[in-house]
């Protein structure tokens, strides 16, 4: 589709399991990129549990405008173009669909959305290693994937599966984001690694994947996400917001490095034969 040609980089934000803050990371990363001057879109690929309309503060009942009978105009919030199953169905509707229907709906949202010229399209993937992940990797060129995890052992086990999956489908791994790493008490300033520590570094050692972000366990992140005003909009000068800005900067560096390696010409060997 023509609109896909307008997208410079497609970035998957993925996790091996739910509950690790993948969607919160995706929306705040998108806002950070937009605030750093990049034209940014956000696709909510979690068909069963879309959360981005709530996190972006889009009014309930908002629907994309339809062009030419099938093309959807993205919904714009906080300067970000977005699309989500949450815009297309009522919030209380249970999506009791089999895999082919889910994949079909995802491909429609991806390819039949009238994305403008974007530097980055952030795709908030559903948790796990299933049909949508495979469909995306097979249907469009992906610049790279980011794995979000927490330091818990069970989350790290599933993060390993996510890393292995993207390697199998030849999607570049841009790095690991360790979420909910350290909690700092708002009263006394004491810091504590509630979910453990060192998990991201262990993944880095085991798989040669960089840890490109370490995000705190901070109540305000959850409050502003639930309230529809992402932290980087509500409190751009906070320590947690600075961590997201740093993640966005590192992501751009990683994407540029992968692109440079891909665009490099063949290496010519010279011998005396």
Describe the structure.
- By secondary structure, this protein is α/β, with parallel strands linked by helices.
- The chain has a single domain (2-263), classed as Rossmann fold (3-Layer(aba) Sandwich), CATH 3.40.50.300.
- Helix content is 39%, strand content 19%.
- The chain has ten helices and twelve strands.
- The protein has helices at 22-35, 52-55, 85-88, 99-111, 131-139, 153-168, 199-207, 219-227, 231-234, 239-263, and strands at residues 7-14, 40-44, 66-67, 71-72, 75-77, 80-84, 118-124, 144-149, 173-178, 183-184, 191-192, 211-214.
- The strands form three sheets. It has an eight-stranded mixed beta sheet, sandwiched between helices.
- Helix 1 crosses helix 10 (239-263), helix 4 runs parallel beside helix 5 and helix 6 (153-168) runs parallel beside helix 7 (199-207).
- It starts with 6 loop residues before the first strand and ends in a 10-residue tail after the last helix.
- The relative contact order is 0.18.
- The model has no long low-confidence stretch (mean pLDDT 87).
Outline:
The chain is of the alpha/beta class and 273 residues long. It contains ten helices and twelve strands. The strands form three sheets. The chain has an eight-stranded mixed sheet with strand order 5-6-2-7-1-8-9-12, with helices on both faces.
């Amino acid at each position: 589709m023509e609109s896909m040609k307008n997208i410079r980089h497609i970035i998957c934000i993925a996790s091996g399991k739910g509950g690790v803050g993948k969607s919160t990371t995706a929306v705040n990363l998108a806002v950070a990129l937009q605030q750093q001057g990049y034209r940014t879109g956000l696709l909510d690929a979690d068909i069963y549990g879309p959360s981005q309309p709530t996190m972006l503060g889009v009014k309930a009942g908002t629907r994309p405008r339809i062009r030419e009978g099938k093309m959807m105009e993205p919904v714009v919030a906080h300067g970000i173009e977005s699309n989500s199953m949450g815009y297309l169905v009522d919030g209380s509707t249970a999506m009791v669909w089999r895999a082919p229907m889910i994949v079909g709906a995802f491909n429609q949202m991806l390819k039949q959305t009238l994305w403008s010229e974007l530097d980055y399209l952030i795709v908030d993937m559903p948790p796990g290693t299933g049909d949508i992940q495979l469909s995306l990797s097979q249907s469009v060129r992906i610049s790279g994937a980011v794995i979000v995890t927490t330091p818990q052992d069970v989350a790290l086990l599933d993060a390993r599966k996510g890393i292995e999956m993207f390697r199998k489908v030849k999607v570049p791994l841009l790095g690991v984001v360790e979420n909910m790493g350290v909690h700092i008490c708002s009263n006394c300033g004491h810091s504590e690694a509630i979910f453990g520590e060192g998990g991201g570094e262990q993944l880095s050692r085991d798989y040669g994947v960089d840890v490109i972000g370490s995000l705190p366990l901070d109540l305000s992140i959850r409050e502003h996400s639930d309230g529809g005003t992402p932290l980087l909009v509500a409190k751009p000068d906070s320590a947690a917001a600075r961590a997201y800005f740093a993640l966005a900067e590192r992501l751009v560096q990683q994407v540029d490095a992968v692109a440079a390696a891909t665009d490099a010409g063949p290496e010519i060997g010279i011998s005396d034969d």
